[in-house]
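Worked example 2:
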Amino acid sequence: MSQMGIHNKLLAFLTAGLAGLIMALGLRLFLPFFEPIAWAIILALFFYPVYRWLRRVLRGSGGLASLGMCLLIIAFIIIPVFVLLGSLTSEVIRVYTEVQDNLQAGNFTIVPNKQRFPILNKTVSHTLDALKTHEGKVKEALIDLSKKTGEFFLRQGTVVFKNVANIIFDAALMIVTLYYLFRDGEQMLQTFKDLLPLPRQDVERFAGLTSDVLSATLYGNLLTTFIQAGLGIFILWVLGFSAPLLWGMLMGLASFVPMLGTSIVWIPATLYLFVTGFYLKGAILLIYSILIISQIDYFLRPYFISGKTQLHALFLFFSILGGLRVFGFLGFVLGPILIALCVSILELYKVNFLGRAPQGS
């Protein structure tokens, strides 16, 4: 190899290394603001169809439409979410305090009263015997679990109150980012497409697949989850449940559990009402849950994901668990989005390199 060839290769290597270092340092500047930027991207993806409609109404005024969308999101998303989180924290603390007081005072019994609930008393007693334990051990375990759970939420609440200024600052950054994502999002996306080392046809195919998977994920899964949670909160509030917000939110989270879904919450709640003698309330909750809450999975979800590449329920479930563990609350939405991007890449590989027809075609 000639001296000139070695020199050119060394120069190319140093240039690539320097470019990589500069890019890494540039990205490092954005890491402290990862959460507000990520939330802004998620909200922009979720509400971009609304933005396009608003821009058409305003006859192409992108800046005005972007400002209007930011104001709408502040009024109908950010402020309600802060109020919701405050109410949810209060309910969690109240439930924790009540459970702790009842457990410590001995007012809480695992085995139901034999005279009032003979069948249930016999069933629970036999279950405890089969598990080779007794009521005292179960109560000790519940006291320990409730204590740890309460301490966890109290720590989280303390962290939130200590960082109110940071939260407000991040919210402001998110709104600013969101404004520019709405206004210049299409140009940013086109710039990103131009940087991909793929033929134009493959880039457009990848963009189309990603759009389908994200649409199915954001609207077919996350939006229907929020709707189910809202319906759960409403019926539990109407029926006079303690902490309806907490149990309704748990119902929404349970919708991601494969096979069981929201029934993890409403079946025990219905049984509780029947066992405690509230037969009419139990019947209302059962009928409402079967005919309304559960039907979201059969009618609304398929409407959003019809004909689109979608995530398998098992992948979606673990993407949420993994996202919550890695990113915190942000991972509830970011986890499924990242897996959706992985699915898009795999679909592109299947079509281009394996020569197979795309899913749903």
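The first helix runs from residue 3 to 30. The mean pLDDT is 80.
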